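Fold it.
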Amino acid sequence: MKLDVINLDKTAVGSIEVSDAVFGVNIREDIVARVIQWQLDKRRAGTHKTKDIGEVSGSGKKPFKQKGTGHARQGQDRAPQMRHGGVAFGPVVRSHAYSLPKKLRALGMRIALSAKAKNGKLFILDNMTATEPKTKVFKQAFENNGWKSVLFVGGETVDNNFALSARNIVNVDVLPAQGANVYDIVRRDILVLSKEAVAQLEGRLNND
């Protein structure tokens, strides 16, 4: 598959051949949904917590005698059915992460990239650098291109001036190739890759 290489003004300055095995696979929304759910579950803090019967303050003494009071029998004031008692089967601190096969994660990445290419929302940038951090210049360029929600993926490292120029613009993210992931690709409307990012993603996904 051949894609145009553009500059920040969206003017074609060349072309690049990309792998069909990475950017031209069949679209499977169910696979993408599974990978995104795995990502979101993995990053959950899992710090929600309630106190059970053994953690609330109070005595374990029987509040009143078993019979003759006209009330239902009670064993202690800390029981879940009592006011200020412990919570039965409440949430506890735990990890929500689970295992997802590496091949499935790689397939989800290929599908996300292919979907952007198929919908005409994948662009290859010739140079992802900036001489100085100028947010105003970048914002104007994005508006001229009609880019309102963009993910930029650079090479092994991201040019610092480029990252500083883009970080204060709403709905614009900049990541190195190593940090590219399905969730961030899907949540942004436009995906812009550097030529170095294309090479690194192909090397990473062709080996999985």
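Residues 102-118 form the longest helix (17 residues).
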